[in-house]
Amino acid sequence: MAFWRSKKKNDSAPDDSSDSEGSRDVAASEPADETPQVSKEVDGAAESQSPGGGLFSKMRQSLQKTRRALNTDIRDLFKSEGRLVDEDFLGELFARLIRTDMGTGPAETIRDDVAKRFRGRVVHLEEILETITQQTQLMLQQESAEIQMSESKPTVILVVGVNGSGKTTSIGKLANHLSKAGHKIVLGAGDTFRAAAVEQLTIWAGRIGCDIVTGKHEADPASVAFQTVDKAVEIGADIAIIDTAGRLQTQTNLMQELDKIRRVISKKVDDAPHEVLLVLDATAGQNAISQARGFSEAAGCTGIVLAKLDGSAKGGVVLPIREQFQLPVKFVGLGEGIDDIAQFDPAMFAKALFAQS
Ligand SMILES: Nc1nc2c(ncn2[C@@H]2O[C@H](COP(=O)(O)OP(=O)(O)OP(=O)(O)O)[C@@H](O)[C@H]2O)c(=O)[nH]1
Ligand SMILES: [Mg+2]
């Protein structure tokens, strides 16, 4: 196993535009042959972050595209001073709500709530927005967005999802977030399929100042995962976060590869992985739902990271994700920068979604 030290880099987000399509065979035997490498960055203290402060405005900013579509649409319903809440109004409101990709279920719930409170009355935009915000918050309630920490170190987090959903970038931002919270982190470059993927995660490790375990190109990802957990145990790290190559839930061999990664990790730490985070691309809107459906069952996911909210006009997709899956949304991606991630907060999200710009 080789060690090296990298200088902290802090400029732009590491880009990775290489193609990751394709499929690989899963080796039948358990891994042990490849020798992953470990690099150590010791002198890179994490950037300071304004805790809490500005988080709402960041969330608000990120939801700008969704909010613009939604607010403009809803505002259009109020051409004159106030509007009578009748069947026409309720029908138009429903049509506008589903444009955010919130889906028919949540849109019906919101419409029915508005009907119950205001039918037959003349209402103003502000009243409607306030009601919708409250109802949205209610629908988004979940137990906790905290990472489930193992009682004994290390907590192991496996990160999965389809190609290009934002896995590696989310890992970089999450690792930074957790590192700032005082946790010692090890990253595992489990996407050995593309050389660029390892490089991308290595750049993030350098920026954060944490260890990373990498394997040779096309090394068995399960081997890298095992070595990552092994390294975390060895150095007393609090959290190991393991990247994986993008895959579709329909690619049976690649889903089996995830199984193998899980099996191998649990050989090292009994109850690991403690979290399997499914990264979904918010710009995919309703398509993100079908991704979630396949993965949540096949990969035993425990939580969702909704990436690229900032680039999406379909931020409403959080609602059907919460409605249809038992999985909590743990984090949202708000951009490509190192601090562009936030723990999911239903109240803040609902408020930011309907805030008037
Ligand atoms: N605007 C924005 N871009 C993001 C966000 N998260 C990821 N990206 C961008 O989305 C692209 C894909 O991100 P990656 O992290 O490489 O995605 P991945 O899932 O690891 O991709 P594969 O490993 O190829 O499957 C990159 O250009 C990222 O910079 C986000 O929250 N906001
Ligand atoms: Mg990746």
Automatic annotation (TrEMBL):
Membrane association type: Peripheral membrane protein
Pfam families for this protein: SRP54
Keywords per UniProt: Cell membrane, Cytoplasm, GTP-binding, Hydrolase, Membrane, Nucleotide-binding, Receptor
Listed EC numbers: 3.6.5.4
Chain segments carrying region Disordered: 1-61
Gene Ontology cellular-component annotations: cytoplasm; plasma membrane
All residue ranges annotated as the SRP54-type proteins GTP-binding domain in the record: 328-341
Binding positions (GTP): 161-168, 243-247
Top enzyme class: hydrolase
GO BP field: SRP-dependent cotranslational protein targeting to membrane
Subcellular compartments: Cell membrane; Cytoplasm
Molecular-function annotations in GO: GTP binding; GTPase activity; signal recognition particle binding
Catalytic activity: GTP + H2O = GDP + phosphate + H(+)
Function: Involved in targeting and insertion of nascent membrane proteins into the cytoplasmic membrane. Acts as a receptor for the complex formed by the signal recognition particle (SRP) and the ribosome-nascent chain (RNC).
Family of this protein: Belongs to the GTP-binding SRP family. FtsY subfamily.
Matches recorded under NCBIfam families: ftsY (TIGR00064)
Subunit-level organization: Part of the signal recognition particle protein translocation system, which is composed of SRP and FtsY.
Name assigned to this protein: Signal recognition particle receptor FtsY
Organism, scientific name: Stieleria marina
Native organism taxonomy: Bacteria, Pseudomonadati, Planctomycetota, Planctomycetia, Pirellulales
The gene coding this protein: ftsY
